[in-house]
Design a protein that fits this description.
The structure holds 2 protein chains of 2 kinds. Chain A is 23% helix and 36% strand. By secondary structure, chain A is α/β, with parallel strands linked by helices. In chain A, strands 5, 6, 8, 10, 11, 13, 15, 16, 18, 20 and 22 form an 11-stranded mixed beta sheet that branches. Chain A has a 10-stranded mixed beta sheet with strand order 4-3-7-9-12-14-17-19-21-23. Chain A has a two-stranded antiparallel ribbon with strand order 1-2. The radius of gyration of chain A is 22 Å and the shape is globular. Chain B is α/β, with parallel strands linked by helices. In chain B, the strands form 3 sheets. In chain B, strands 6-9-10-3-11-12 form a 6-stranded mixed beta sheet, with helices on both faces. In chain B, helix 5 (156-170) runs parallel beside helix 6 (186-199). The two termini of chain B are 16 Å apart. Classes of the chains: A alpha/beta, B alpha/beta. Chain A binds chain B through residues 2, 421, 424-427, 429-437, 440, 444-445, 447-449, 451, and chain B through 56-60, 79-81, 83-85, 89-90, 92, 95-96, 98-102, 105-106, 109-110, 113-114, 117, 149, 166, 170.
Chain lengths: 478, 263
């Protein structure tokens, strides 16, 4: 790998600072008492505590999975603090009363917490460690009947909706980390778009892990009723620590008849240093249920951070004519590992799914695409198109593709395409001979490679993602 | 054209260069003045393509001895992109494919980089589009090629035309054409050669690296150099190319009386 490429990928992480703020932190360790503590701190109804305890008991009997193509030391679940909240000085009446230290933190991160300074037309819910600290544009959204708030608030204000939908797409015993999340989740976003409403602005959640020994276990639930539509964005950062933090989130999406949910993520958790020390373990379960006829669920993700990314945003296509989409760019550098992809489960007739996955590996990193396309016996005329492309920068990284295709209805059409390419010295020399330096050349090649995915992102995010990628790969060329 | 008053653009003295530890250039001397067209001929492995790559600054090649002056400045101290910005252009023998990067985007970035270097304002995409389409007419190129990825799926002829189009856009002071004629049919050769001739003027210079005399029917050189084993062993006027074509490279050694012209 030439020096120019190397310099390109090796830029420092910008969001690695720690906010000095007094926090209310639960003692380390996990047991029923801790779960009761979380539940009582959040003043939860009895049924939710029962939900948590049920999940916890299931989790105790589960075995940590080992099939993924990533390596990490065994996690000591007793060494993690499961609740950390910035101590409010007093009860907040408005955004202006948010701790200025917090406001400064998010200002530094470029997250707009003041509505007047906000990005045009984006409502934001801000999650700091275990709790939501602010949600903007709530009133404006309420005018059209949209509920957008933290999940803790939703538990208090709309318990019936939460009870009806929570855990219906990702059940508490779904998998090891989903069970853990169900037991200890502390906050997250809740979003409800009523029948026939097209959400007038993009909704967004910004996640920030601040405390060194806390985990973040957030829970997001989005429901789009008949004919409703919403575009939802998620961004994440964390400070730079030499230890690893666990982030085990669960996201559930539910789309009823003719509803449309578009969920976009730009994930930039701290990835560890160039020797692979520190960084976030991002073990996340994201799943959407296209429950109604003609419903659509679309996942777009740009995964650049985390020491380990392990997630498969999936679609269960139950409604007739429902559509599932997955567009992904996963970038790994240094010693990062990513095992990511999707599952498209076709149940309804005439269901369609599209998978476009772009993996970029640099340094000594490893990136795997793992995807399942299952056409169940009832899914007449189902169609899937999958495309998995990998790009290697340098010669010490790896790219792997694990496609699983299960077809149980012979009217299905399933296509899978895959390619692997490399940014070579000759390409870079060609650019430089035309006056274009390595940095710009790599950014141009990468953006070209990721074009189909970036086109799916909302504009603000697309710009952000493009910048992030160039930044991320700075120094990898050489 | 040869003009005693013209300025020396390139001065190569005792140039030695290696790739992967093997010495390929073993003492090249060459002087090129503005307005001149030089042809470098020689058998495969004689070092002619290496000379072009070393001049352009290919990172795999290392200059181990000698000097390399461009417009009086030490070229070997410059990164390849800085050489390009200073006006050194290499038309590649095998232009690389760059999937996903649209040709118009690539051409515009290259063009604006060079303009920036000259202190000129950048062209926006619309202005550039008009400008590039005009240049493409010179090479009888199909406009749809602007939307395709750089060189991806191009025929050999299209790739070579794309190289000359870039030369037309960047207006280099020194253009190195590395076997631009190989892989071209006779019609394409004529179009490319015609394009190159129109770009040639008293302020710039061309070095053509070629195996065959047929390119030189269309682009008439002022000097023809013959390379062998990493050095220029013979320099003469255009008639040298014709003699080589007729007698083959061995003839040079048979005819050792022939006097050397200015190296």
């Amino acid at each position: 790998m030439s020096a120019a490429l190397q310099n390109l990928v090796n830029q420092p992480y910008k969001h690695g600072f720690v906010t000095n703020i007094e926090s209310d932190i639960a003692p380390k360790g996990l047991n029923e008492d801790i779960i009761r503590l979380i539940s009582s701190k959040k003043n939860e109804p009895e049924w939710l505590l029962a939900f948590r305890l049920d999940a916890y008991r299931r989790w105790l009997n589960m075995v940590e999975p080992a099939w993924q193509n990533v390596k990490y030391p065994k996690i000591d679940f007793q060494a993690i603090s499961y609740y950390s909240a910035p101590k409010p000085k007093k009860k907040l009446a408005s955004m202006d009363e948010v701790d200025p230290e917090l406001l400064r933190t998010f200002e530094k991160l470029g997250v707009p917490m003041h509505e007047r300074a906000a990005l045009a037309g984006v409502a934001v819910d801000v999650i700091f460690d275990s709790v939501s600290v602010a949600t903007t544009y709530k009133e404006k959204l309420a005018e059209v009947g949209i509920i957008f708030c933290s999940i803790s608030e939703a538990v208090q204000l709309y318990p019936e909706l939460i009870k009806q939908y929570l855990g219906t797409v990702v059940p508490p015993g779904d998998n090891y980390y989903a069970a853990l999340n169900s037991a200890v989740f502390t906050d997250g976003s809740f979003c409800f778009i009523p029948k026939g409403v097209k959400c007038p602005m993009d909704l967004s959640t910004y996640f920030r892990i601040n405390t060194e020994e806390s985990g973040q276990f957030e829970r997001t639930l989005i429901i789009a009723e008949e004919g409703a539509s919403v575009s939802y964005l998620e961004g994440c950062t964390a400070p730079r620590f030499d230890t690893n933090q666990l982030h085990a989130a669960v996201v559930e999406l539910i789309a009823l008849d003719d509803a449309d949910i578009k969920y976009s993520t730009v994930q930039n958790w701290y990835a560890g240093d160039e020797n692979g020390v520190g960084g976030i373990y991002n073990f996340v379960t994201k799943r959407g249920l296209a429950k109604g006829r003609n419903s659509r669920i679309s996942w777009t993700q740009v995964e650049t951070g985390s020491a380990i990314t392990w997630k498969y945003p999936s679609c269960i296509l139950r409604g007739e004519n429902s559509v599932g989409e997955f567009y992904s760019v996963a970038v790994t550098n240094h010693h990062q590992q990513a095992d990511t992809g999707t599952k498209m489960i076709h149940i309804g007739a005439n269901t369609r799914s599209t998978i476009v996955s772009k993996g970029i590996s640099a340094g000594q990193s490893n990136s795997s695409y793992r995807g399942l396309v299952r056409i169940t016996p009832a899914a007449r005329n189902a169609r899937n198109y999958s495309q998995c492309d990998s790009m290697l920068i340098g010669n010490q990284c790896g790219a792997h593709t694990f496609p699983y295709i299960q077809v149980q209805n012979n009217s299905a059409q399933v296509e899978h395409e895959a390619s692997t390419s490399r940014i070579g010295e000759d390409q870079l020399f060609y650019f430089s001979q035309r006056g274009i330096g390595a940095e710009e050349a790599v950014s141009m090649i990468i953006n070209g490679f990721c074009k189909e995915v970036f086109q799916q992102l909302p504009l603000e995010f697309a710009v952000e993602a493009t910048k992030l990628l160039s930044f991320k790969l700075e120094g990898s060329v050489g | 054209m040869i003009n005693v008053n013209s300025k020396t653009l390139l001065e190569v003295r005792d140039l030695h260069a290696t790739v992967g530890g093997a010495e390929i250039l073993k003492g090249v001397d060459l002087t090129v003045k503005s307005g001149e067209i030089h042809a470098i001929m020689g058998l495969n492995g004689s070092g002619k393509s290496t000379l072009a790559k070393v001049l352009a600054g290919h990172p795999s090649y290392e200059v181990t001895r000698g000097t390399l002056l461009f417009d009086g400045h030490d070229l070997s101290a410059l990164a390849p992109e800085d050489r390009a910005r200073a006006g050194v252009f290499l038309a590649f023998q095998y232009p690389v494919e760059i999937p996903g990067v649209a040709n118009n985007q690539f051409l515009r970035l290259a063009y604006n980089t060079v303009r920036g270097q000259r202190g000129e304002e950048e062209l926006d995409p619309l202005e550039f589009d008009d400008f590039v389409r005009e240049k493409m007419k010179l090479l009888k190129m199909n406009p749809d090629f602007l939307d395709r990825s750089v060189n991806e799926g191009f025929s050999g002829g299209e790739k070579k035309r794309n190289e000359i189009l870039q030369m037309a856009l960047l207006e280099p002071r020194l253009a190195l054409l590395d076997e631009t004629d190989s892989g071209l049919d006779i019609d394409a050769l004529r179009i490319v050669a015609n394009g190159v001739n129109q770009l040639s003027n008293k302020d710039n210079a061309l070095i053509l690296v070629t195996h065959y005399q047929r390119l030189l029917d269309y682009i008439v050189p002022d000097y023809v150099h013959v390379m062998e084993a990493g050095r220029i062993i013979r320099t003469s006027g255009k008639e040298l190319a014709l003699a080589l074509e007729k007698h083959g490279y061995d003839w040079i050694h048979a005819d050792d009386q022939m006097t050397e012209a200015r190296p």
